Structures are given as structure tokens and as C-alpha cells.
Amino acid sequence: MFIPGSAAEEFVARILATPSEVEGMTRFSLYTLSTYKFTRPMFMLPKADLALNIWLFRRVPIADKSRYPEAVAAVRSLAERVLAASGKIYPPYAPYFTQPDW
Questions:
Q1: What count of other Cβ atoms lies within 10 Å of the Cβ of residue 8?
Q2: What is the pLDDT of residue 29?
Q3: Which end of the chain is more exposed for a tag (fewer CB within 10 A), N or C?
Q4: Are strands 2-4 and 25-34 parallel, antiparallel or unpaired?
Q5: Which residues of the chain have pLDDT under 70?
Q6: Using omega within 30 degrees of 0 as the cis cutoff, is the peptide bond preceding 41 cis?
Q7: Where are the domains of the chain?
Q8: Which secondary structure element, helix H or strand E, spans residue 17, and what is its range?
Q9: CATH code linked to domain 2-101
């Protein structure tokens, strides 16, 4: 997930404050990117000088299938908030793209 730098602090704080979004999280990585260095037209980043690249790694117990829908709902909620903040998402963190999303 890529968030404009101006929205990054609030976005990350909300993730960390929301139990359903941190449940099962095993790693949380953040990288600041200077977007002007990315020049490939098909690799879209937020329209900002700086963007925050967020990587969330989570696990869902394989034997507890009842938790899969919760995990998918949490990812969907995050993806919708990324897009609402003018961010960009790429698979595997947003595996349900619709044609207009592309």
C-alpha cells in the first residue's frame, strides 16, 4: 500500500489503534519513498512528493476458517481507506480489484 506522505501519520495511527487491523499481525514495515524517482508509467504512486509504503504481514490460523472472512474484511477496509486517501494498492494486499480499480 502506498499512502501520500501528508496522510501517513493519521493513517498509520488508525491502523495501530484498531484491534481488527492489527489482529494476527506478525510484521509491520514502513518505508518513505521520494515519488519523483519512480518513472515507470504503469507503476502508479500517490501524487505527492513523498509516499509511505506500508507492508502488513498477518496470519490467520489455518484451522480456524471462521476467521478468514474477518481477515478479508479487515484488508478490504484498509484498501478502501488507502484509496480514499488518494493512495495506491497493488496485489497481494488488495486481491479483489474490480475493472474500474485498475
A1: 22
A2: 92
A3: C
A4: unpaired
A5: 92-102
A6: no
A7: 2-101
A8: helix 5-17
A9: 3.30.70
